[in-house]
Automatic annotation (TrEMBL):
Residue span(s) of domain HTH lysR-type: 28-83
Name listed for the protein in its UniProt record: Transcriptional regulator, LysR family
Lineage: Bacteria, Pseudomonadati, Pseudomonadota, Gammaproteobacteria, Alteromonadales
PROSITE patterns reported in the protein's UniProt record: HTH_LYSR
Organism: Shewanella halifaxensis (strain HAW-EB4)
Similarity annotation: Belongs to the LysR transcriptional regulatory family.
Transmembrane domains' residue ranges: none
Annotated InterPro entries: LysR_HTH_N (IPR000847), LysR_subst-bd (IPR005119), WH-like_DNA-bd_sf (IPR036388), WH_DNA-bd_sf (IPR036390), XapR_PBP2 (IPR037409)
Transcription recorded as keyword: yes
Superkingdom, natural source: Bacteria
Keywords of the record: DNA-binding, Transcription, Transcription regulation
Length: 325
């Protein structure tokens, strides 16, 4: 039995596909090939970028010209140059790709929302602050919710939000300082502390000032993956010194293992102390440096359901049982 599709949207008239004589002849792949070729000096260079040989690319470009009945390239032995018509098509390709990307993004986002699925961009260290517990509680309260976690750097999360690839991002405070037109809100507030090996001469202290660390070797998170690194550097400069950074790492677990090996000290979120580190001491910092966990979102795509999710995560993460001992 054939399935019948009902169009309930009467505001848009159906397309007359018979009038689209080129629809079965011009593909998105063909336009993509043309677009890459239009930004290359030679077809050989374009073919390399597309990971194909030159001959099929050249054939596709001639086929496109035949279908359209126009000349897109001026060719000679050394190079290819766009004609004025080719320039126009390149501009139109940008619009076509943008519309297609937006349409696919809207459809997939709608499907996720109707299925109760949420794609969350995360940095791994937020689980040390009780994020996993909060998600468990939320799942228990709303069993139909489905979480898909995507581990992305803060910068990758910002791009993913614009592209509708994630619904909400979760980052540290420092990564929310320059995110316009995105917006953010605090989920969990915590300070930075000093992390050092228990054999370090300062390990017996209950509190330290940044200025006391001027001669220490620092291990920090990569500047590319975390704005918190630059935030710490800026606070050190305010205290009159530039920290001696001997190593930058990508993963928080790596950072802690390097500290434990006595290769340096670091300034880390207080929640790192919730994990069991056999030879690491955490010492409070006299200066206040924020390491808050924040939700980042696109205000144009926020809805009551997402707002409720953020509020619930905030409540669960700040539950009394999750506060540091």
């Amino acid at each position: 039995m054939d399935t019948k599709f009902v169009n309930n949207d009467h505001s848009v008239a159906p397309l007359d596909l018979n009038s689209l004589y080129w629809a079965e002849r011009i593909s998105m792949k063909m336009l993509r090939y043309f677009y890459v070729a239009s930004h290359s000096q030679t077809l050989t260079q374009a073919a390399e970028r597309l990971h194909i040989s030159k001959s099929p690319l050249s054939a596709k470009m001639r086929e496109l010209e035949t279908i359209l009945g126009v000349k897109l390239f001026n060719r000679d032995k050394r190079s290819v140059q766009l004609t004025s018509t080719g320039l126009m098509l390149r501009h139109e390709c940008q619009s076509i790709f943008s519309v297609m990307e937006g349409a696919v993004s809207k459809v997939t986002q709608h499907a996720r929302e109707t299925q109760g699925q949420l794609r969350l961009g995360i940095v791994s260290s937020i689980f040390w602050a009780g994020f996993g517990y909060a998600c468990q509680q939320l799942k228990a309260q709303y069993p139909s919710i489905q979480f898909e976690f995507l581990e992305l750097s803060p910068q990758q999360q910002k791009v993913a939000l614009f592209n509708n690839e994630i619904d909400i991002g979760f980052v540290r405070y420092a990564d929310t300082l320059d995110i316009t037109p995105l917006e953010s809100c605090n989920l969990y507030c915590e300070p930075m502390v000093i992390a050092l090996c228990d054999r370090h001469e300062l390990s017996g202290r209950s509190q330290l000032c940044l200025s006391e660390l001027a001669n220490e070797k620092f291990v920090i998170m990569s500047h590319k993956n975390s704005a918190s690194a630059q935030l710490v550097v800026n606070h050190c400069i305010k205290e009159g010194f530039i920290p001696q950074i001997t190593q930058e790492v990508v993963e928080p677990m790596t950072l802690m293992n390097v500290i434990e090996s006595q290769a340096g000290i670091s300034v880390v979120p207080q929640s790192f102390s919730r994990q069991s580190w056999r030879h690491i001491r955490f010492i409070s910092l006299r200066q206040e440096i924020h390491a808050n966990i924040c939700a980042v979102y696109n205000p144009q795509k926020i809805n009551p359901e997402k707002q409720a999710l953020i509020q619930s995560l905030h409540q669960f993460m700040n539950a009394e049982s999750l506060k540091p001992i």
